[in-house]
Design goal:
This protein is mostly helical. About 70% of the residues lie in helices and about 0% in strands. Helix 6 (about 120-160) packs antiparallel against helix 8 (about 170-190). The longest helix is centred in the middle third of the chain and has 49 residues, at about 395-445.
C-alpha cells in the first residue's frame, strides 16, 4: 500500500526533476526536455531511476537515457583500463634500459584492450614512449655512423702509407685533430641516457672500432717519426712502411730490390650454365612473389613468401650472382619490417576510420550530409575497414566503436529512404491520375477544330508527365506503356490533321514550282498562293524543322523567279547613260584636282561636276586646256569660262563685296569689268562650309590673272526641243518665254529668285522707296497663271543619276571639301606666321595680302598694320599692353595670370565708357597699336593667340 500510494509522488518528483518530461504532450517535446536535462550532467542514480519509469512510457525518449548510461558505463570501464595501462607505461618509462619491442607491444596491446589512447593520460604517455623510441633509434644510427667514420679514418692512414713520407708528414696534424674529434663524439654517444637501451652488440662494436683506430693511428705516427729521423740521419733505421723505406733508400743512393710477384689465386671450379640458370630462375620467382606481397602490404602473405625465399636461397645461394643477392637481402629486410609494423599500422588505419565515422554527425552547421551522400560515405568506410582487417589482427574494441558510430549515422539514411519511398508513392499516384485525365480529355476533344489549342494542351500534358517526379524503375516500366497508349489516343486526331495539311502544302509547293517556271511572273497569283500558305500554316501547326523545310521548298521557286526578274532589270539598267558618263568623268577630274592640292583647280573641277550633274553638256575645251587637264587636272581659266557666277554664288554669304548671281547674269560686261574686284574679296570664312578656300598668295594672284584673261561668259548650249509641256499647250495660249532672271546663273539651289538691287541699295532696286519695282522681280499681285508660268521653287537638279555615278560624285565632293578645308587651315596658319615675322623684322613687304588674311581683315585695317610695321616703334608700352588686353577680350581667350588684374581694371573702365566702341569692334586698330610697339616674345605669343581666334570670325 505504501509503494502504491507513493508512486504518484515519485512521478511528480521525477517530472519536476526532468523539467516536465513526464507531462509533456508529445514524444518530441518529451525527448527535447530529456535532452536538456541530460545536458546538465545529472547523477547516474537519477538517470537510472528516470530511465526505469520512462522506458515503459516512451521508448524514444528512454533511448537517450539508455545511450547516456551506456556511455557512462563505457567511460567508467575505460577509466579503469586507462589507469591500468598508464601504470604499465610509467613502468616502461621508468626503466633505465627500454626495449623498443616492449614499447610497441604496449601500444598494440592497449589498443586491443580498448584503452582510450586518444585521451589523457594515455595520449601523453604514448607520445613520451614514441619520443623515447625515436631517441633510441637515433642513437643507434649515430653509433653505426660513428663506426663507419672510424673505418674511413683508418683508410686515410692506409692511403697515406702508400704515398711519400713527406705527404704523410703534411697531413699528420689534420689526422691527429680528426682522431681526437672522433674520440670526443664517441664519448658523447656513450654518455647519452639511452645508451643502456641500445642493443648489446653496439657497445662492443664501437669499442672495437675505437681500439682499432687508435692502434692504426699510433703505428702511423711512430712510423712517420722514424721516417723523419732516417731522412735526417743516414745511419738511422728505416721505417716499417715499404714505400717510405724505398724512398729513403733511393735518397741515400742504395739499390731498391724489385717486388716479388703476387701468387696466382686458384681458379674457382666451373659450374654448369644450365644449373646456374635454373638456380637464378628459382630465386627470381620467389623474389618476385615476395616483392609483390610486400608492395601490396599483405603481412601474412609476405611472411610466407619470405620463408619460401629463404628456403630457395639456402639451396641455391652459392649459384646466385651478386646483384640478385643484393635484391634478395633488400626484399627480406622490407618483409621483416612489414611484418613487425603491420599490426601497428592497421590500428592506426582503424583509429582514423573510427574518427571519420564519429565525425559524420558532428559536422559544422550548414554542412550536414544528405541521405544519399551519407549512404555512400558509410559504404566506403565499411569497405576500408574490411581492407584493414585483411592485413592485421582484428581489434574488437575499435570495431565496436566504429560499428556504433556507423549505426548512429545510418539513421539519417533511414529517414532519407523513408522520405524517398513516400515521394515515390505520391509520384506514382500523380502519374496514374494524369493518365486518367489524358484519357478523359481525349474522349472529350475527339472532334476539336482548334488545332493550335489542341497541340498546346498535348504539350502541357507531356510537360506534366516529364515533371511528374521520380519513381522506381519497376514502377516506371509499368506506367510508361499506359501513358504511351493514352497519349497516342489523344494525339491521333491532331496527327491526322497534320498529315492532311502536309498533303495540301505539297500541292502548293508544286503550284509554286509551276508559277516560277512561267516566263511572265504573275504577281497576283504569287500573292494569292502565299496567302493560302499562311492561312494553312496558321491553322495547322507542324514540327518546326519539318515546317521550315517545307517553307524553304515552297519559297525557292518563287525566289528564283524574282531573282531572275531582278537580274533582267539590272541587266537592262546596267548600260550607263551619257549623263552618267559625264558625271563620272567630272568626278575623276575632281579627284585629280584634289590630289594636286591647287585650290583654283579644285574649284574649277567642282564647277564642272555641278554643271554635269545639272545635265549641261561640257563645252569643247581647247587643245592647250585639254593638255593641262590631262596633266594637272582642270585649269583655273576653264573654271571661269564655264561657271563665271558660280564662285560668287558659292561665297556670296562670306564675301562682303561679292556681286550677286543675278548681276553676273544680267550684265556680262559689268561682270567682266568687276571680275578682279570680286576675285579679291571672294575669301571663305575659316569656320564656314568652305573654310579651306584660302590659298597662298602666288597661286591666288595667278588665279586672278587667269580670271581677268578669261572670257566673260561661256556660250550657252542650244535649248532642247520641248517634248511635252504641262498645262494648256494650245497655240493660242503660248506665251513668250521669260528671261531666266528669276534665278542666278545655273539656277542653283539657294540663289535669290529676285533680281539685284541697283542704285544705292544694289542692282534691281531703286534708291527711292516710292519708285515702282523692277520687272525682274515681277508683280506679286498679278495672277501667275494656272500652270507652268510660276518659276519652280527648287532648282533643276538634272536627270536622275545611276548608283555608280551618284556615289562617285558624292564621294568626290566630300573629298574636295576636306581638301579645301585642309588647304584653308594651312593658309591661315601661314598667314598668321607671316604677320608675326613681319612684325619682328619690321618689314611691311612680308605682310600677307587681303586674300591670305581673310574676310575679317578689311583693306583699311591691313593698311594700318602695314604702316605700323613699316615704321619704327612709336606706340608706348602702356598703350600696347592695353591694346593686347582689348584683343584678348575681343577674342575671348585667356589672359596670363600676371595680367589678370590689369584686365579686370580695363573691364571696369569700359563699363564707365558705354559710348565707346567695344573691343570686338576695334580689334583691327588694337592689333595695329600692338604692331606699332616693339616686338617681344611674350607679346607675340599673346597676339598670336588672339589673332588666331579673331581671323576666323
Amino acid at each position: 500500500m505504501t509503494s502504491t500510494s507513493s508512486k504518484p509522488h515519485d512521478l511528480q518528483a521525477l517530472d519536476t526533476l526532468t523539467g516536465g518530461a513526464f507531462t509533456a504532450p508529445t514524444s518530441g517535446e518529451r525527448a527535447a526536455r530529456i535532452r536538456d536535462w541530460l545536458a546538465g550532467n545529472p547523477a547516474p542514480e537519477q538517470m537510472q531511476e528516470v530511465f526505469k519509469e520512462l522506458s515503459g512510457r516512451d521508448k524514444g525518449a528512454a533511448r537517450l537515457l539508455r545511450e547516456k548510461l551506456d556511455e557512462l558505463k563505457r567511460a567508467k570501464g575505460q577509466e579503469a583500463i586507462a589507469a591500468e595501462w598508464a601504470q604499465k607505461a610509467e613502468a616502461l618509462l621508468g626503466q633505465s634500459k627500454l626495449n623498443i619491442a616492449d614499447a610497441l607491444a604496449w601500444q598494440r596491446d592497449a589498443a586491443k584492450a580498448g584503452a582510450p589512447l586518444s585521451r589523457e593520460p594515455l595520449a601523453g604517455l604514448k607520445a613520451r614512449l614514441a619520443e623515447r623510441v625515436k631517441g633510441i633509434e637515433d642513437l643507434q644510427h649515430r653509433a653505426q655512423v660513428h663506426r663507419e667514420a672510424a673505418v674511413l679514418l683508418a683508410q686515410r692512414f692506409e692511403v697515406l702509407s702508400t704515398k711519400g713520407w713527406q705527404d704523410a708528414q703534411a697531413a699528420e696534424e689534420s689526422l691527429r685533430a680528426d682522431v681526437a674529434h672522433w674520440q670526443q663524439q664517441a664519448g658523447e654517444i656513450t654518455a647519452d641516457d639511452n645508451w643502456t637501451s641500445l642493443d648489446a652488440k653496439f657497445a662492443p662494436q664501437l669499442e672495437s672500432s675505437k681500439s682499432q683506430l687508435l692502434v692504426v693511428s699510433d703505428a702511423f705516427h711512430s712510423a712517420l717519426a722514424q721516417a723523419v729521423a732516417a731522412a735526417a740521419d743516414a745511419a738511422a733505421p728505416l721505417p716499417p712502411v715499404p714505400v717510405w723505406a724505398d724512398e729513403l733508400r733511393a735518397a741515400r743512393g742504395e739499390v731498391v730490390a724489385p717486388k716479388p710477384a703476387a701468387p696466382a689465386r686458384p681458379a674457382a671450379p666451373k659450374v654448369d650454365p644450365a644449373v646456374r640458370a635454373a638456380a637464378q630462375d628459382a630465386v627470381q620467382a620467389a623474389l618476385a612473389k615476395l616483392e609483390q606481397e610486400t608492395a601490396e602490404g599483405h603481412g601474412k602473405a609476405s611472411a610466407g613468401a619470405a620463408a619460401a625465399l629463404r628456403a630457395v636461397l639456402k639451396e641455391h645461394g652459392k649459384l646466385v650472382e651478386a646483384p640478385l643477392e643484393a635484391r634478395v637481402h633488400a626484399a627480406l629486410v622490407a618483409a621483416g619490417e612489414l611484418e613487425g609494423w603491420q599490426r601497428w599500422s592497421a590500428d592506426k588505419v582503424r583509429e582514423d576510420l573510427v574518427a571519420k565515422a564519429e565525425g559524420l554527425l558532428k559536422r559544422p552547421e550548414g554542412q550536414a550530409l544528405g541521405g544519399r551522400k551519407m549512404q555512400e560515405t558509410l559504404r566506403a568506410l565499411r569497405d576500408q575497414w574490411k581492407q584493414a582487417d585483411q592485413g592485421g589482427v582484428p581489434n574488437h574494441a575499435l570495431w565496436k566503436r566504429f560499428d556504433e558510430a556507423c549505426n548512429e549515422a545510418h539513421k539519417v539514411v533511414e529517414a532519407w529512404l523513408e522520405k524517398v519511398r513516400a515521394d515515390a508513392a505520391e509520384h506514382r499516384a500523380h502519374r496514374v491520375a494524369l493518365i486518367e485525365e489524358v484519357k478523359a480529355w481525349a474522349a472529350e476533344h475527339a472532334g476539336a477544330t482548334d488545332l493550335k489549342a489542341h497541340n498546346r494542351a498535348l504539350h502541357q500534358f507531356a510537360d506534366r508527365w516529364r515533371d511528374g517526379g521520380h519513381v522506381g524503375e519497376k514502377v516506371f516500366a509499368e506506367l510508361q506503356p499506359q501513358w504511351n497508349e493514352a497519349f497516342g489516343a489523344a494525339r491521333a486526331p491532331f496527327e491526322a490533321a497534320q498529315k492532311a495539311s502536309v498533303e495540301r502544302r505539297q500541292a502548293m509547293i508544286a503550284e509554286a514550282i509551276e508559277l516560277g517556271a512561267q516566263p511572265m511572273l504573275r504577281i497576283d497569283a504569287v500573292k494569292a498562293l502565299q496567302q493560302r500558305w499562311q492561312a494553312e500554316a496558321q491553322s495547322v501547326p507542324l514540327d518546326r524543322r519539318h515546317e521550315q523545310k517545307m517553307w524553304d521548298a515552297f519559297r525557292a521557286p518563287i525566289d528564283e523567279a524574282f531573282n531572275r526578274k531582278t537580274a533582267e532589270r539590272e541587266k537592262a539598267s546596267s548600260a550607263m547613260s551619257e549623263h552618267d558618263r559625264h558625271v563620272l568623268d567630272a568626278s575623276k577630274a575632281l579627284d585629280a584636282a584634289n590630289a594636286g592640292g591647287d585650290v583654283q583647280k579644285i574649284r574649277a573641277a567642282i564647277a564642272r561636276l555641278e554643271a554635269a550633274m545639272r545635265g549641261e553638256a561640257p563645252p569643247p575645251a581647247p587643245k592647250t586646256e585639254q593638255a593641262a587637264v590631262a596633266s594637272d587636272g582642270p585649269s583655273v581659266g576653264a573654271t571661269e569660262v564655264e561657271a563665271p557666277g558660280q564662285a560668287a554664288a558659292e561665297f556670296g554669304e562670306s564675301a562682303e563685296q561679292a556681286p550677286s548671281p543675278s548681276d553676273a547674269e544680267a550684265s556680262p560686261g559689268t561682270h567682266a569689268s568687276q571680275a578682279p574686284a570680286a576675285s579679291i574679296d571672294l575669301v571663305a570664312p575659316v569656320d564656314g562650309a568652305d573654310a579651306s578656300a584660302r590659298a597662298d598668295g602666288p597661286a591666288h594672284d595667278a588665279g586672278e590673272a587667269a580670271a581677268v584673261e578669261a572670257p566673260a561668259a561661256a556660250p550657252k548650249p542650244a535649248p532642247k526641243p520641248v517634248v511635252a509641256m504641262r498645262g494648256d499647250d494650245r497655240p493660242s495660249s503660248k506665251k513668250a518665254e521669260a528671261a531666266p532672271a528669276a534665278r542666278g546663273a545655273g539656277g542653283r539651289f539657294g540663289d535669290r529668285r529676285e533680281g539685284g538691287r541697283p542704285g544705292a541699295g544694289g542692282p534691281g532696286r531703286s534708291s527711292d522707296r516710292g519708285a515702282p519695282r523692277s520687272d525682274a522681280r515681277g508683280d506679286r499681285g498679278a495672277p501667275a497663271g494656272r500652270f507652268g508660268d510660276r518659276p519652280p521653287r527648287f532648282e533643276d537638279r538634272g536627270p536622275r543619276l545611276g548608283d555608280a555615278a551618284f556615289r562617285a560624285q558624292r564621294e568626290a565632293l566630300e573629298r574636295a571639301d576636306m581638301a579645301l578645308r585642309k588647304l584653308a587651315a594651312q593658309a591661315h596658319g601661314e598667314a598668321l606666321t607671316q604677320v608675326l615675322g613681319a612684325w619682328e623684322q619690321r618689314d611691311a613687304s612680308r605682310l600677307p595680302s587681303i586674300q591670305e588674311l581673310g574676310r575679317a581683315v578689311t583693306p583699311a585695317v591691313r593698311s594700318g598694320w602695314s604702316q605700323a610695321i613699316g615704321s619704327a616703334p612709336t606706340a608706348a608700352a602702356p598703350d600696347a599692353a592695353e591694346a593686347l588686353l582689348r584683343l584678348e577680350m575681343a577674342a575671348e581667350v585667356p589672359t596670363p595670370a600676371e595680367q589678370l588684374d590689369a584686365r579686370r581694371a580695363l573691364q571696369l573702365k569700359l563699363l564707365t565708357k558705354r559710348g565707346d566702341p567695344a573691343p570686338d569692334q576695334t580689334w583691327g586698330q588694337d592689333a595695329g597699336k600692338v604692331l606699332a610697339a616693339a616686338h617681344d616674345a611674350s607679346s607675340a605669343r599673346r597676339l598670336q593667340n588672339a589673332l588666331k581666334a579673331l581671323l576666323r570670325k
